[in-house]
Amino acid sequence: MLFLLDSNIAIKSDPLSSELEAGAHVAMQFHQLATRHHHDLRVHPSSITDFNRIDDSKKRQARLQVFDRYPMLENPPKVSAQQLAALGATKPWSNDAVDHDLLAAVVGDAADYLVTEDQGLHRHARKLGMADSVIHLVEALELLRALHAPLPSPPPAVRRVKVHELTCSDPLFDTLKADYPGFENWFRKASRGQRDALVVDGAHGLAAVCLLKQEPTGEFGLPGPQLKLATFKVGSEYSGQKYGELLLKTVFEQAHLEHARGIYLTVFSRHVQLIALLEDFGFNALDLKTEAGELVYAKPLFPTSQLSSLTPLEHHVRYGPPALMWEPVRTHVVPIEPRWHRALFPDAEPPDEDALLPASAGLSSRPFGNALRKAYLCNSPSRLLQPGDPLLFYRSRDAKAVFVIGICESTFVSHDAGELAARVGRRTVYTVNEIEELVKRGPVLVIMFRQDRVLRDDPITLQDLTEQRLLRSWPQSITQVGTEGMAWLKATVAE
């Protein structure tokens, strides 16, 4: 794969003094893995403009020498009219002009990924629909780890604790104290109020935390009961591990089990990564701000007549998981071998008694195990899947049953292992070697999907599928189910 490095990434692993820059150790690990596995690391000619702005001539020259070790992207694509229309015009040689040139490289398919810590670039990438191709450094590292090396155990799991079991001196709360001057007093009140918290443990202290507040009547005009995420935080060193999705996965299941009308939280506009995550899972900003100047993001869990025009996929994002529309789409059974089922759906394995909910139990420390957005690769000849189609993942060979239901986001077919690794590396179960083995067997179908629910207590067995005439026999490949059993299926997995 070709990684285009923003200037702030290119120099991170080359310190000019005895003090390392923040994130330097991540940059060094990324460079090591990329070099070991022969990935292409390049920089954009326009990035030199960033260094030419440095007033100190000695520092400027030192930075340029470090930058010079990377090969330049040759004949980079020009900024297109469509990109200008979406992002607006810029002044020549300005920061924005450089950003436009970097984005043009991924828009024009000259690079697989742009690696940058610049939040403005990430925001512009979302406007262009290129968010998956513009990634943070730690995400680039985790992508390579997922493709090339198993990650260490033990697996993470969400635990439910009382707030008083936590300590406000944990480093994870440091930025919250800076954002909210009265945070420590509020934390003491939450502790005395027997509030619940969801936590993911890190190597030293907390990796992620979500403090909950159940509200019989919601604030800001929201219909009660609401589940408020009073604090939602993932440590910066754990970015890329999908711990945000892991917390949301657990929150969604808890809200569903408790019949909450919705979920909401407040967030400052500068926290763009969190906002992007929220918006990708159906939270929308209300037309108001708190006294502290925060935005209010809310997610309803029950459909309203005003939004009946949503597509099946939009319906799921807005109200789920779990939330499926069974019509006018078609449902498909997707057979999956036990080894891939265990890796892709670790939360469908026997639960960990110490975990909060089965949704958070037994999860792999590899990021895709924590995620709600995933990819499945196979050699199926089926080309019938459409966005919004429900997917019944059938665990073949041993259990012979459906434990997990998903919803299709998109599909594509490729004969190229490099293209497959580049396009699904952030979601995939497979290593590069395993992808290459799939390609040897023929064209590879990639299903990009979202996990909707896990049928832990009452999976749908092969006998159920055949008796209800959803299938004629055991599925050898992706199979569209019969219409006769759809009424039974909808009643069986009713939300």
What CATH architecture of the largest domain do you see?
A: Roll
Order the strands across the largest sheet as they lie in space.
Answer: 5-6-7-8-9-11-10
Cα separation of the termini:
42 Å
What amount of the residues lies in strands? 15-25%
- Total domain count: 3
CATH class of the largest domain: Mainly Beta
Give the count of helical stretches.
Answer: 19
Rg (CA only): 24 Å
CATH topology of the largest domain: Archaeosine Trna-guanine Transglycosylase, Chain: A, domain 4
Integer average pLDDT = 87
Largest sheet properties = 7 strands, mixed
Organism: Microlunatus panaciterrae
Pfam families: Acetyltransf_1
Protein name: GNAT superfamily N-acetyltransferase
Domain N-acetyltransferase: 171-302
Summarize the SSE layout with pairings.
Elements: E1 2-5, H1 7-10, H2 24-36, E2 40-43, H3 48-52, H4 57-67, H5 81-87, H6 95-107, E3 113-115, H7 119-127, E4 134-135, H8 137-148, E5 158-162, H9 174-179, H10 183-192, E6 196-201, E7 206-215, E8 226-234, H11 243-257, E9 262-267, H12 272-280, E10 284-289, E11 295-300, H13 312-319, E12 332-336, H14 338-344, H15 367-370, E13 373-378, E14 390-395, E15 401-414, H16 417-424, H17 432-441, E16 444-454, E17 460-461, H18 462-467, E18 479-480, H19 486-492
Parallel strand pairs: 1-2, 1-3, 3-4, 8-9, 12-14
Antiparallel strand pairs: 5-6, 6-7, 7-8, 9-11, 10-11, 12-18, 13-16, 14-15, 15-16, 15-17
